[in-house]
């Protein structure tokens, strides 16, 4: 298949949105930028396109996808009700990197929800994502635009590397500001439960709804046959080809540990400024106390390490709470929960 690449900076937002919408209306799928990561979008009303999304990504058939909207009106018809708590969160965080899970109506196909009676919905803030949804005129189902298992794509180049020749259009809207996927929160119970941490943290959500919590399954290994609220938790995600080990400890101990354990092809993933203290080849992925900068770069650095053929990567572990939970969670999963505490 021929893949077209449209750069919004050169070709304009309107041309990008119109081209994407034309394809989406014909039941085709397209990669689009959002503020979190790139998404692989399909009309929620095209079964053919929805199935193509799973096929192209190699996504397990029991991992549901998120529906993207560009106005609150679009919730009508796809969710049974919008609980009061959800309205409060929408008021504060939409448009933005928050996904909420609602009870679904019959209009939402089982292909999107994998047979569950709930649907995940997000109202992205990225101007390109918004323009594409508006032009298409329907909500768009979109998982991250990577091959299943690979780190999520945060630039159009990442989409090119995974999807070139497999989809008709990739829209290049530059690098994604947030860099990790949205916070996923279930709104179907009596209090919000975070099923996937993102840059909107538990603490920020608790400012609005104090009894919000993080699902206990989020930061641990989940067995393949285990029944969990979010099927995504079962899969090894974000996994680069190289082996990842998460190392917790001071810069001095970290430097000592990697020096002692170094073999040819090993790299360190560290914080800005750490490189001078570390004797093995190292790539920084953000500022030590700056979760936003870590989130922005973490997937890009994992992909870079694969490109240069890294065999093993020792990662200086980020903090585990606040905004950093999003980063720490992705790295723990990339490491398959392999960690060293110094
Ligand atoms: O930031 C994002 O959320 C990006 C951009 C493209 O919007 N999308 C994204 O989609 O990360 P995806 O498919 O890679 O991740 C969707 C996650 C999965 O972990 C899935 O299991 C969960 O959301 N999910 C979707 N529908 C669900 C539902 N009804 N109940 C529980 N979890 C659900
Ligand atoms: Mg994904």
Which features would summarize this protein structure in a list?
342 residues; alpha/beta; Rossmann fold; 11-stranded mixed sheet; 30% helix; globular; binds threonylcarbamoyladenylate; binds magnesium ion
In total, the number of strands is 16
**Distinct bound molecules:** threonylcarbamoyladenylate, magnesium ion
Nearest-angstrom radius of gyration?
20 Å
Would you identify the regions where 5 or more consecutive residues have pLDDT less than 50?
none
N- and C-termini, Cα separation: 50 Å
The share of residues in extended strands comes to 15-25%
User: In CATH terms, what is the fold-level topology of the largest domain?
Assistant: DHBP synthase
Order of helices and strands: EHHEEHEHEHEHEHEEEHEEHEEHEHE
The strands making up the biggest β-sheet line up spatially as: 1-8-2-3-7-4-6-5-9-10-11
CATH class call of the largest domain = Alpha Beta
Number of domains: 2
Shape: globular
Mean pLDDT: 96
Query: How does CATH name the architecture of the largest domain?
Result: Alpha-Beta Complex
Number of helices: 11
The name of the CATH superfamily of the largest domain reads DHBP synthase
Class from helix and strand fractions: alpha/beta
Helix content: 25-40%
Main sheet: strands, sense, barrel: 11 strands, mixed
Question: Could you characterize what this model shows?
Answer:
The protein folds into two domains: 4-219, DHBP synthase (Alpha-Beta Complex); 243-341, 3-Layer(aba) Sandwich (Rossmann fold). The protein is α/β, with parallel strands linked by helices and 342 residues long. The strands form two sheets. An eleven-stranded mixed beta sheet has the order 1-8-2-3-7-4-6-5-9-10-11, sandwiched between helices. The chain has a five-stranded parallel beta sheet with strand order 14-13-15-12-16, with helices on both faces. Helix 2 crosses helix 6 (127-136). Helices cover 30% and strands 19% of the residues. Bound molecules: threonylcarbamoyladenylate and magnesium ion. Residues 34, 36-37, 39, 63-66, 99, 101, 113, 116, 118-120, 122, 142-144, 181-182, 184, 195-196, 229-232 line the site of threonylcarbamoyladenylate. Magnesium ion (MG) binds at residues 143-144, 152.
């Amino acid at each position: 298949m021929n893949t077209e690449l449209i750069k919004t900076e050169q070709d304009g937002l309107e041309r990008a949105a119109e081209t994407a919408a034309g394809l989406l209306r014909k039941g085709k799928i397209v990669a689009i930028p959002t503020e979190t990561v790139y998404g692989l979008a399909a009309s929620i009303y095209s079964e053919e396109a929805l199935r193509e999304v799973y096929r192209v990504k190699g996504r397990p058939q029991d991992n549901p996808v998120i529906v993207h909207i560009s106005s609150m009106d679009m919730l009508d018809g796809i969710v049974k009700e919008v609980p009061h708590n959800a309205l409060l969160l929408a008021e504060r965080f939409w448009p933005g990197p928050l996904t909420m899970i609602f009870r679904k109506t019959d209009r939402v196909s089982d292909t999107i929800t994998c047979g569950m009676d709930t649907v995940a919905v997000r109202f992205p803030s990225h101007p390109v994502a918004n323009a594409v949804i508006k032009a298409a005129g329907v909500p768009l189902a979109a998982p991250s635009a990577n091959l299943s298992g690979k780190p999520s794509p945060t630039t159009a180049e990442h989409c090119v590397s995974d999807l070139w020749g497999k989809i008709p259009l990739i829209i290049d809207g530059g690098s994604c500001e947030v860099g990790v996927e949205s916070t996923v929160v279930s709104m179907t119970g009596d209090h919000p439960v975070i099923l996937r941490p993102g840059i909107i943290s538990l603490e920020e959500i608790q400012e609005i709804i104090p009894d919000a919590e993080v699902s206990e399954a989020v930061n641990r290994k989940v067995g393949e046959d285990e029944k969990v609220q979010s099927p995504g938790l079962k899969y090894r995600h974000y996994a680069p080809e190289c082996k990842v080990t998460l190392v917790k400890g001071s810069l001095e101990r970290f430097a000592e540990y990697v020096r002692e354990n170094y073999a040819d092809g090993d790299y360190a993933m560290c914080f800005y400024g750490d490189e001078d203290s570390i004797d093995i080849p190292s790539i920084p992925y953000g500022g030590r106390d700056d979760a936003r900068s870590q989130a922005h770069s973490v997937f890009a650095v994992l992909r870079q390490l694969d490109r240069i053929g890294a065999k093993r990567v020792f990662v200086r572990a980020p903090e585990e709470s606040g905004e950093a939970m999003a980063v720490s969670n992705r790295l723990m999963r990339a490491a398959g929960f392999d960690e060293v505490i110094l």
